[in-house]
Amino acid sequence: MIYNLETDFDRSNPDLTDDQYIQNEIFMQAFNSGEGALFDSLYREDSISNFSGKQLTGEARLAFFNEYLATKPVSLATLTKWYVAGDVALIKVEYIIDNQGPDGRSRVEGYCTDVLRRGEDGRWLMAIDRPVATTGRPPSQ
Amino acid sequence: MSDHVETMKKHLARYADAFNSGDFETMDAFYTEEAVAVWEPGKPLTGQARRDFQREYLRREPKMTATLRESFVTDDTALLIVDWVIEIPTDGAPEREQGVGVDVLRLGDDGVWRYAVDEPFGQES
Predict the structure, then answer these.
(1) What is A20-135's CATH number?
(2) B79 and chain A: CB distance < 8 Å anywhere?
(3) What is the pLDDT of residues B60-90, one digit of tens each?
(4) Which element (helix H / strand E) includes B46?
(5) A130: which chain B residues are within 8 Å (Cβ-Cβ)?
(6) Domain range holding B102?
(7) Strand, coil or helix: what is A69?
(8) Mean pLDDT, chain B, as a whole number?
(9) B87 CA to chain A: closest CA distance, Å?
């Protein structure tokens, strides 16, 4: 699988689009940018991220992304399944994340179940993410 | 958060009752118009194909018990992880199926949560 991690997107008003490959590329780009606010802008206000192992939304979610992405983790995700049902989609990816902790690098591998929503403005954004680690430990654990 | 869990437990209980009633129309009211159901792994069905498959399945009089394992509930969209067991009567011992379902629900304008994606074998364990 060749990724185009140069996929252009509007950083001030991102749209994950209805193309599951572009979704994945924008998601990885934003994650790997190290910019918590940029990554968080892929989520809706009420969206839930379980990345930390807790269900975070709103300000708490942004605070977590700011802190975690500042450590410059690098993710690589491979799309395994997607279903689109009107204005909502279920996406599954397998991921590898290389974390840079105070004790050096550590790798987490697992799969993630994501729900995306198309808003009234037509933009597709993250509604729910649920990463499950199969090897290694998630960032906060 | 706990309110959401209770809401989804009740939803699941009502869905199981509808499923176990064997009445297709009652169960179909739990799905959005565009819903995708993946009752056979790798074979997503929508629209009339979904309805035909589910109607035929209910004719075998399956009985389901479902337990909510995890729930993630936003204002109008939810993800549920559900342990389920289905027994289908046969001439001998009942046929038994089980799995871990991954379900996406949407809240309708009428305040009713409905399945947008129903994937009974969505998670391996």
Answers:
(1) 3.10.450.50
(2) yes
(3) 999 999 999 999 999 999 999 999 999 999 9
(4) strand B43-46
(5) 70, 72, 79, 81
(6) 2-123
(7) helix
(8) 96
(9) 27
Q: State both tokens at B96.
A: 């038994």
Tell me the C-alpha distance between B59 and A37, whole Å.
Answer: 52
In this prediction, residue B124 has a pLDDT band, given cuts at 50, 70 and 90, of: confident
pLDDT above 80: residue A112: yes
Residue spans per domain, chain A = 20-135
Binary contact (A85, B79; C-beta < 8 A): no
The pair phi, psi for residue B51, each rounded to 5°, is -65, -45
The CATH number linked to B97 is 3.10.450.50
What's the CA gap between B107 and B7, in Å, rounded? 12
Total Cβ atoms within 10 A of residue A78: 13
H helices of chain A, in order, are: 20-32, 36-40, 58-69
Give Cβ neighbours of residue B45 (< 8 Å, ≥ 6 apart). Answer: B36, B37, B38, B39, B53
Count of structural domains, chain B: 1
| Pick from A10-24, B20-34, B50-64: least confident | A10-24
The closest CB to that of B74, out of A90, A113, A127, belongs to: A127
Going by C-alpha positions, the residue among A57, A133, A48, A138 that lies closest to residue A101 is: A138
